[in-house]
Design a protein that fits this description.
It is built from 9 helices and 14 strands. The chain has about 290 residues and is of the alpha/beta class.
Length: about 290
């Protein structure tokens, strides 16, 4: 059993008839994820890779009970899609969509918190519990069931580091991409709390980047409450100030959100911080053997 998703997760795909929604539905089905329905307004009655399509989430959930949703809806319409899922009773929602307006993201997250729902993203590669459920766009072959939890703001770095962790025979319990936008539903601290209570997780990898202060908050939580060892990597050590680097949230303003400040906070909290992604698995091995 993983955190957030597992073999009992029953998901709908919002935007299933679009190019990305259709493509990744096929891959998630091949991985074994229970995709029970799709939703695209005006396309009700269609079938995508054996998955029935409905016009609304309410109709889909009534006919095909589900407890999770993954959203491939274009940014201008994504907020309405998420709110529709929340109102239909869905309590785990993965938002793959990029470039959602910040005011829409704030509305989504506030509504989700009132309803006790978990939002992963926006702008996330998703979440995977290897061997049980993939609700996202990550390449499944780099993950194997194991004992290391990974939480990350970067999709590509997650794949690279997970592959090394897998090669060392450690494997992953659950991997979560919280998203690269300035505001995300799930934070590092939220994920660390879940890993702390997960008996399958013996150690955690935290992959951060410049911008914001999520990593500093995580450092405080690790120092005060986390009982499991953590290895971190912070991307953007050489990034110039006030220039956005890749993700919308990856920007240093003044002295806030620098890689140095994040590394300093994590190191002070007792976290082993790798200088490059390839060192993470080596540091993990040492910690787990000690």
């Amino acid at each position: 059993m993983g955190i957030i998703v597992d073999r009992n997760t029953r998901a709908i795909v919002q935007g299933i008839t679009g190019r990305q929604g259709s493509f990744h539905t096929k891959l998630m089905l091949e991985y074994g994820t229970q995709i029970v329905a799709g939703v695209t307004p005006g396309r009700g009655g269609a079938v995508i890779y054996g998955v029935p399509v409905y016009d609304t989430v309410e109709e889909a959930v009534r006919e095909r009970p589900a407890n999770a949703s993954i959203v491939f809806v274009p940014a201008p319409f994504a907020a309405d899609a998420v709110l529709e899922s929340l109102d239909a009773g869905i309590r785990t929602i993965v938002i793959i969509t990029e470039h959602i307006p910040i005011k829409d993201t704030i509305t989504i997250i506030a509504h989700a918190r009132r309803m006790g729902a978990t939002i992963i993203g926006p702008n996330t590669p998703g979440v995977i519990t290897p061997g049980e459920c993939k609700l996202g766009i990550m390449p499944a072959h780099v993950f194997k069931p194991g004992r290391v939890g990974i939480v990350s703001r970067s999709g590509t770095l997650t794949y690279e580091i997970a592959m090394e962790v897998t090669k060392r025979g450690l494997g992953e319990s659950t991997c979560i991409g919280i998203g690269g936008d300035p505001i995300t539903g799930l934070s590092f601290v939220d994920a660390l709390k879940l890993f702390e209570n997960d008996p399958q997780t013996d150690a955690v990898v935290l992959i951060g980047e410049i911008g914001g202060n999520l990593e500093e908050h995580a450092a405080k939580y690790i120092e005060e409450k986390l009982s499991k060892p953590v290895v971190a990597f912070i991307a953007g050590l050489s990034a110039p100030p006030e220039r956005r680097m890749g993700h919308a949230g990856a920007i240093v303003m003044g002295r806030a959100g620098t890689a140095d400040s994040k590394i300093e906070a994590l190191t002070k909290a007792g976290v082993k911080v790798a200088k490059k992604p390839g060192e993470v698995a080596t540091l993990l091995e040492r910690l787990l053997k000690s």
